[in-house]
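Dear colleagues,

I hope this message finds you well. In preparation for our joint manuscript, I am sending the 7-carboxy-7-deazaguanine synthase (Rhodanobacter thiooxydans) sequence together with its predicted structure, so that both groups work from identical material. I would be grateful if you could confirm receipt.
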Amino acid sequence: MSGHDAREASGTPAAAVAGRLRITEIFHSIQGEADAIGWRTVFVRLTGCPLRCVWCDTEYAFHGGNWHAIDDILAEVATHGAKHVCVTGGEPLAQKRCLILLRKLCDAGYEVSLETSGALDVSAVDPRVHKVMDLKAPGSGESARNLWSNLDHLLPHDQVKIVIASRADYEWACAVLAERTLADRCMVLFSPVWSKVEPRELAEWIIADKLPVRFQLQLHKLLWNDARGK
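The corresponding structure tokens are as follows:
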């Protein structure tokens, strides 16, 4: 639904809608991925995603959610007293006002990360934000959606994540790693799809091929399995 459509549906004045985002949940937990792994983090999960990866573990964020004023989001984040904030989804950049939230979080002094699918343009994201950008392997069902021009907008503190569901995905990831010189751009993360690839198997592939990548497991799933809001 576009912003105009949302105003039509809700009858809300344009000025009010301009400062709001549709949010699925805000919660305080431990970061389970990327370079901030292990840090106490506030997660702001935006609603909506244009992709449908077959192994997605946050389908509940595709629809629903509630409108929150951006300043109210910042106020709730502040109650948890954490230095790190992760804006995630769904696909957070599907809501254009996400860029405003990211900027305001940075202005407030937080270490801010953005989890994004790699299918939407990241060029306007505040450079202070740590972008954790997926490249979708064929096993996701969405590899055709990779926006390769996004690679030109990655900074050294950003990360590229490839989620791997099979040996074929791994071979694809190795080819992309070499052809796109990913490791020269930023940190590259290889992560196994939960229950599809044995973590030890992926780790052994990386070691055997001497890849310049960082192996990662989803720490939050080890701690809380699939519990929502963790």
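For the figure legend, we might mention the following. The domain at 20-224 is CATH 3.20.20.70 (TIM Barrel). The chain is about 30% helix and 25% strand.

With kind regards,
E.M.
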